[in-house]
Amino acid sequence: MFKTETIEKRIDELLEKMTLEEKIGQLYQSGISPVGGFEISIQEAEQLLEAGRIGRKEYERLVNAASFDEREDMIRKGTVGSFIGVQNPEHANHLQRIAVEESRLGIPLIFGLDVVHGHRTVFPSPIAEACTFNDELFEKSAEIAAREASEDGINWTFAPMVDVSRDPRWGRVVEGPGEDTYLASRFAAAKVRGFQGDDLSVEDRICACVKHFAAYGACEGGRDYNTVDMSEAKLREVYLPPFAAAVKAGAATLMPAFNDINGSPCTTNKWLLNDYLRDELGFDGFLISDAHGIQECVFHGTAETPADAAEQAIKAGCDMDMGCEYYTDCLPQLLEEGRVSMDEIDRAVRNILRIKMACGLFEHPYVQKPEKSSKLCAEHRDVARDIADRSIVLLKNDGVLPLKADQKVLVVGYFGDKRNEMLGAWVISGREEDAISLTDALKEENIDFDFVPCIDSSITSMTLDKEQLEDALRNTKADTVIALVGESSFTTGEAQSKSKLELIGGQTEMLRMIKAAGKKLVTLLINGRPLAIPQEAEMSDAMVECWQLGIEAGHAMYDVIYGKYNPSGRLSMTFPQNSGSCPMYYNHMNTGRPASDGPWASKYRDCPYTPVFPFGWGLSYTEYDYSNLTVKTECDKLVISADITNIGNMEGEETVQVYIHRRRASHTRPVRELKAYKKVYLQPGETEKVTVELSRNELGYYNNEPRYITEESMFDIFVAHDSTGGLHSEIYF
After folding, report:
1. Is residue 223 within 8 Å of residue 255, measured between CB atoms?
2. Residue 71 confidence (pLDDT)
3. Cα separation of 642 and 235, whole Å?
4. Does residue 44 register a pLDDT over 70?
5. Average pLDDT estimate for 29-42
6. Shortest CA distance to 215 belongs to which of 194, 231, 198?
7. Which of 66, 208, 231, 606 has the fewest CB atoms in 10 Å of its CB?
8. What does the DSSP assignment read for 140-205?
9. Is residue 135 among the annotated active site residues?
10. What pLDDT was estimated at residue 66?
11. Cβ atoms within 10 Å of 197's Cβ, excluding its own
């Protein structure tokens, strides 16, 4: 993808001139904290010091608030190749000028940042955006994020995260596209195209860094950073395809995950980083460790010393060290001792220089200030609102929605006016003042409403003020209450795993009191992971999954609950019955005693075996009829067609999902697998024939060797509104 004769020749010429110190410098990325591109508190620094994660020198730098300026001499010497966390174009140009004009060889720096779901224009969190099932929008939001980030001197984003995540206890499900491999693969490819475009050297495009490679979403117990143990067949079938799709789309960089796989940390896993990624997939970009990932191999216990960790990482193919300086400190001695070869160091340097050249950094190293900034422009906000509209999932509606603009409503809940909570987790550059809350939007639209939060401001307790709620219910003239419940964005994301997915504090009691008062209850969920809410769903007249929708959250919530937009979102993750039933996901194996109402079945005694809301679920203000399913073979592929009709009174967009089940195989198969989806927009009474084609290769699977199998079998074909039910046919293929 990035290897060209011209670039490789330029790299050869540059390598001949470079000293060992300059080569190792290219392998080092400097950050402002040990955990990536953002500041940490003194207390957090103390905890890292006590845990042995950082040394005394790094601790003193952090608590003394030292700036990047102390690294300027390193830039002049050519002993640093990248920075994370620089978001100021003037500062970026200042550092770049030192690199280009004051260092011996003038090799430019590359600046990275976590631009996860938008830059200044913050889009819905990835788990929410995945609910759009819309590749064009996946790509568009990444394109806008790249345009805005590039104005601030950023050349490289640590996104997209494409981990398949089946356990919502894991806090980082908010950063990715959910539980399904096929959806995650399409998401991955679209995001890479959006960030990078067709030409990385174009000024408003940036490098993607696909993470976390690999199987990070399979951490045991949903506990962040935890171990992963699985067969290679499962790894290849479920967790690796999104990365393969990203590489095929041209991803410039990848990031090995923190976890180990079958006892081998990803950062030093030669099979994963070299044999599979480079030799099998043909990846020719570069790999960067996650923050202090090389150092953490000592904590894993697979390396005894920093030198051991550095040796293992460079040999496995991890090219750049984010933050811990193990390469800088250890590689010279390792080379002298013959434990690492110059060819291995040169290989890593070559990979990094290749991407810097592909980015055009040698020709255009400086940020050019645009005549007019695109950040937070009207066009970008419009796109953010559109994506937020489409990310919302209508989970339940007993006829109470959409609301009428002239009816009075009571709004309750902690999240009603919290603009900062609308932004979501993993927002580096967004600002609270840019966001719109629900109460902001209702004021704009001149809706007659009362608002009382009823819940205190502690994000970890959410205590209910019963007296305030009782007064509000007694005195309001509204017969409908909009209740916003969920979890704070500050309790989702990295290091935010939870053992309990139920609503915390008095939020459930708040809903009960509203129902007991005889009010119609519209429950809006604000969250970064699926929650365990069976009783809350039961007592709600309508329930709407709003996730973390970004700066246009309030407008989008208004659009949907007042019928300005007909909801079209479909769940990207299953909602479990309770925390103890996790992981719960739609494409599980059937087992020899499938789940059923019978006594000897694979289920729990104390809760239903079906989810509260399944993968792919989502309602609309109209209805769609599926008919005339046909499945036939044609040129070694399946051709599947069905007629979709809007039989309601409102125009809308339907997500048509195609699932398969292989009845006989040498390896157990999931009860259903998503293999295709298409969006259709229909006027009332309109019918459209939806056709998809599936090749024999797309229907294959891995056996335990592992070998990819495409043997003939009887297949069940489902064309459906979600991962349950739908039209069914069978065919031998």
Report:
1. no
2. 83
3. 33
4. no
5. 62
6. 231
7. 606
8. HHHHHHHHHHHHTT--EE---B------TTSGGGGGS--S-HHHHHHHHHHHHHHHH-S-TTSTT-
9. no
10. 46
11. 18
Distance CA 546, CA 388 (A): 8
pLDDT digit string, tens, across residues 196-237:
999 999 999 999 999 999 999 999 999 999 999 999 999 999
Q: Which residues pair with 643 in a beta bridge?
A: 627, 689
pLDDT at 323: 87
Banded model confidence at residue 570, pLDDT cuts 50, 70, 90: very high
Beta strands 253-256; 286-287: pairing state: parallel
Given pLDDT bands bounded at 50, 70 and 90, which one contains residue 1? confident
Q: Sign of dihedral through CA atoms 566, 183, 677, 656?
A: negative
Q: How far apart are CA 514 and CA 509, in angstroms?
A: 9
pTM over 0.90: yes
Q: Return d(Cα 365, Cα 351) in angstroms, integer.
A: 18
Bridge partners (DSSP) listed for residue 210: 254
Q: Among the options 135, 224, 290, 434, which is catalytic?
A: 290
Q: What stretch(es) of the chain map to CATH 3.40.50.1700? A: 381-581
Classify domain 5-358 at the CATH topology level.
Answer: TIM Barrel (3.20.20)
Beta bridge partners of 631: 640
Sequence letter at residue 237:
E
CATH architecture of the domain 624-732 equals Sandwich (2.60)
Which structure tokens are listed for 279?
């030799």
Paired residues of 161 in beta bridges = 211
Secondary structure (H, E, C), 348-405: HHHHHHHHHHHCCCCCCCCCCCCCCCCCCCHHHHHHHHHHHHHHCEEEEECCCCCCCC
Alpha-carbon distance of 519 to 542, in angstroms, equals 12
Fold of the CATH domain 381-581: Rossmann fold (3.40.50)
Looking at the chain, the domain(s) classified CATH 2.60.40.10 span: 624-732
Strand 253-256 relative to strand 260-261, pairing: unpaired
Q: Please give the mean pLDDT across all residues of the chain.
A: 95
Report pLDDT digits (tens) over 539-564: 999 999 999 999 999 999 999 999 99
Q: What is the DSSP string of 237-248?
A: IIISHHHHHHHH
Tell the residue number behind the tokens 């003193």, with chain if given: 60
Interval 412-424: pLDDT, tens: 999 999 999 999 9
Amino acid in position 132: T
Q: Where, residue-wise, is CATH 3.20.20.300 in the chain?
A: 5-358
Supply 683's token pair. 């006027």
Q: Are strands 714-720 and 727-732 parallel, antiparallel or unpaired?
A: antiparallel
Nearest to 218, CA basis, from 272, 282, 160, 172:
172
* pLDDT score of 362: 98
Query: What element of type H or E holds 674?
Result: strand 673-682
CB 539 within 8 A of CB 97: no
Q: How far apart are CA 217 and CA 173, in angstroms?
A: 8
What integer pLDDT is reported at residue 457 of this predicted model?
Answer: 86
Q: Which residues contact 708 (CB under 8 A, 6 or more apart)?
A: 700, 701, 702
C-beta of residue 251 within 8 angstroms of C-beta of residue 190:
no
Structure tokens at 316: 């496995």
What's the confidence (pLDDT) of residue 31?
77
Direct distance between the N- and C-terminal alpha carbons of the chain, in angstroms, rounded to an integer: 35
Q: What is the pLDDT of residue 538?
A: 98
How far is Cα 426 from Cα 430, in angstroms, rounded to an integer?
10
Q: Three-class SS string for 616-631?
A: CCCECCCCEEEEEEEE
Residue 485's DSSP bridge partners are 525
CA angle 543, 548, 554 (to 5 degrees): 75
